[in-house]
Amino acid sequence: MGRTTHAAVVRSFDAPPRHEAIPLPEPSGEHDVVVDVLAAGLHPRVRSTADGSHYTSEGVLPLVPGIDGVGRTPEGDLLYFVLPDTAFGSMAEQTVIDRRRAFALPAGTDPIAVAAAMNPGMSSWVALHRRIDLQPGQDVLVLGATGNAGQLAVQIARHLGAGRVIGAGRDAERLKLVTGLGADEVVSLDGEDADIAHRISTAAADVDVVIDYLWGHPAEQAMLALAKARTDRAKPLTWIQIGSVAGADISLPSSLLRAANLQIMGSGQGSVTTAAILAELPALAAQISSGTLTVDPLPMPLAQVEQAWTTPTIPGQRLVLTT
After folding, report:
1. Could you give the CA distance from residue 119 to residue 47 in angstroms, rounded to a whole number?
2. Given this chain, do its domains 4-104+293-322 and 119-266 carry the same CATH topology?
3. What pLDDT, on a 0 to 100 scale, did the predictor assign at position 148?
4. What is the mean pLDDT of the chain?
5. How far apart are CA 20 and CA 9, in angstroms?
6. CATH: 3.90.1280.20, 2.60.40.10, 1.20.1250.20, 3.90.180.10. Which one for 119-266?
7. Confidence band (pLDDT; 50, 70, 90) for 1?
8. What is the model's pTM?
9. Where are the domains of the chain?
10. How much of the chain exceeds pLDDT 70, in percent?
């Protein structure tokens, strides 16, 4: 008879996971290893898997959510690991990982901090290393700077040598936090379209890079505002699309692409290889562990997963399930 473990188990896409015993998959490949999970982040990506809305969802139930985490091997090695799209994720006392999708963490690493920040941080870290090569002194606008990933993007852009970093978002209280995290200026995306366009034009007319977690109408507004306001429209503007919190689609006038030197690209699974993403993660983990990047985790026991699913967080916090 196979082993069982306690895990957060989704049996309906309409209800939060419940803490219960479930069979542990058997290692099936030469690189597979069972780890004791110490911490796993409750990321938006995890929530979309658990409610069946993520584009990779195949509607298979039951499932254990969780796409990454910090675990310990039987030999005592502390690892950060990333899981493939699978029905048995990281929100369990034990899970099976592919050792090729993991790397060792130094002794003394805080598993909770790493579990909280790696997923939201890797989006901008990988984008600025692998989709482009951010040059020292280039100016960066972060659209959606008030979310966890956006807040880390502000810090990461600053750490990687950006000249000016501008954070844009709707939540006034969170924008104050973004200023404290290193943004040179913040732009409110709340209000009438004309007012928002004026603010973006004034603050960010000549930025070199936009990191976009919003898409939808805010992206439309910002693209038009920046294209019209640039001192030199032939100056390259690289738009890196990462998230779509504000909408999955935009209306893009063809004239905009002719009137400005605008390059639009995405960054995520598919546009960057898994190997390339994994190659970037040890350096990011080191910055999290050293305290260079500000992290505010809210740990909760795995056994309280139903409560954790609906627990509100303050700006900047990331829920982490611990065992």
Report:
1. 13
2. yes
3. 92
4. 95
5. 7
6. 3.90.180.10
7. low
8. 0.92
9. 4-104+293-322, 119-266
10. 100
4-104+293-322 CATH choice from 3.30.70.360, 3.90.180.10, 2.60.200.40, 3.30.450.280 = 3.90.180.10
pLDDT for 56 equals 77
SS3 sequence of the chain: CCCEEEEEEECCCCCCCEEEEEECCCCCCCCEEEEEEEEEECCHHHHHHHCCCCCCCCCCCCEECCCEEEEECCCCCEEEEECCCCCECCCECEEEEEHHHEEECCCCCCHHHHHHHHHHHHHHHHHHHHHCCCCCCCCEEEECCCCHHHHHHHHHHHHCCCCCEEEEECCHHHHHHHHHCCCCEEEECCCCHHHHHHHHHHHHCCCCEEEECCCHHHHHHHHHHHHHHCCCCCCCEEEEECCCCCCCCCCCCHHHHHHCCEEEEECCECCECHHHHHHHHHHHHHHHHHCCCCCEEEEEEHHHHHHHHCCCCCCCEEEEEEC
Mean pLDDT of 96-115: 95
Tell me the two tokens of residue 109: 């690493």
Highest mean pLDDT among 43-47, 157-161, 245-249: 157-161
Token pair 């110490």 in the structure block, residue: 38
| pLDDT 10s digits, 144-200 | 999 999 999 999 999 999 999 999 999 988 999 999 999 999 999 999 999 999 999
